What does this fold into?
Amino acid sequence: MNLKECTKSAFLLLIGLGGLMGLNSCSEKSQEQSQTISPTPGQQAMIDRKYGMFLHFGMNTYLNAEWSNGSAPAATYNPPADIAEKAAQWVTNAKKAGMRSIVLTTKHHDGFCLWDSQYTDFDIANPDIKNKADIVKAVSDACRKEGIAFSVYYSLWDRHEPCYKEADFRKYIDYMKNQLKELMTNYGEVCELWFDGAWDKKNVSDWCLPEIYQFVKEMQPNCQISTNWTLGKRPVDMAENDSIIYFPADFRLWDPFLPVKNDPKIYSYGGKKYYLPFECTQTISVLGNWFSHPEDKTVRELDELEEIFYVSTANDNCLLLNIPPDVNGEQNPLAIERITALAQKLGIENGKPFPKQLPEPKSLTSSATASASSIFKQDTLHYGAMYAIDSDVSTAWKADKETATLEISLKQAADIKEIAIIEERNSIQEFFIEALINQKWATIYTGKALADPKAESFMGYGYNKFTLPQSVQTDRLRINIQKSSGTPSIYSIRLK
It folds into this structure.
């Protein structure tokens, strides 16, 4: 099951739960957070950090996969001899780019651990692995040296560990607690704990989250803790006083969505209200890949990154930008170049203060409007035309017919030289693009299947970027889809 399918399944599951889950009974001594409707000191410190780097590296890197099932032999993980030095460079890259934090994926759903855990041999210290560097140590040490906040991602779901599948799930809870103790006591201060994979259990109470929350806080009182899909809602659906699904939580997660402009902050649990900022997680990959893949050479343009930064860090929210190392421990040089250029443009490189007021980005699509001939199920809230130009690959315009037209109106006329379109897989088969020139529609591009299969993401996105035969000055564009293999869906359109 790919991420989109799992997201859909989990979303339906959450709907079926029928509302707020009760506190689990795993720990009678667990304590609820005190009622608070403003940032706690720990939350404020997180808000002040504002911008960080997400690092996805591990077994999936060497399987060329986004997700894997934990069955690959440990020796599949085969980093170079200097991987510890490479890991330190990731942190240096983050600092140059003005980032204040690192979130390292210490254990993904496959169960492979990037540290020497005493509770499994499915880790970097396995005898069959040649280069056994402790990646958690290498990154945490580099973070302390560079003055970067160190944080960890840990998957609740473990597809390798045998006790995860036993009837007595308490064994796995204890296994998790043992591993979390290693992470929280052996690597200095941990500023954030990012849980993922909770959708794998029908009953939220199975995870014993209050118990685990208290357990971690006893070791790391200032560590901010949350679970992906905290509310069980996409940001567009969030409203003030919504119920928290995965509780306790210090902030909200739902990757890879961007917040809405007036992102609400006050949410409810057990009759009390809590202030929860939102941590946005976005990929440097245009296609939305978290792990490095040789097939995916895409990197977001500078203007798009600026727009994402602006939207993601407004209103007490934070941005994690994912830049994955490859099998050689190297991050895409173009990606590093791009985030360094962003830092220079914002004036935040090497720890310089964030500007008190960011000017709103001026990309062609940021101020544009869009309309469409049809909307899937007439649901404009979730599939409206504007989602095609919102710079968010997690939202999309979707038509309700196999043929459709999407029209984009720019704030003012501009010279268009290049068009990039991200669609759902390779669904659009025939299309043509028109521009309004001298008050008449003129065809400026005709194409067949839109997406290059080699540029299709593991998340199901198809990507195509093409240069027009000659630049066109216009304030209106029209994409006419003449044939598609199903209802066409466009996640993002970028114009240059």
Summary: The radius of gyration is 23 Å. Confidence is low (pLDDT under 50) at residues 1-25, 27-34.
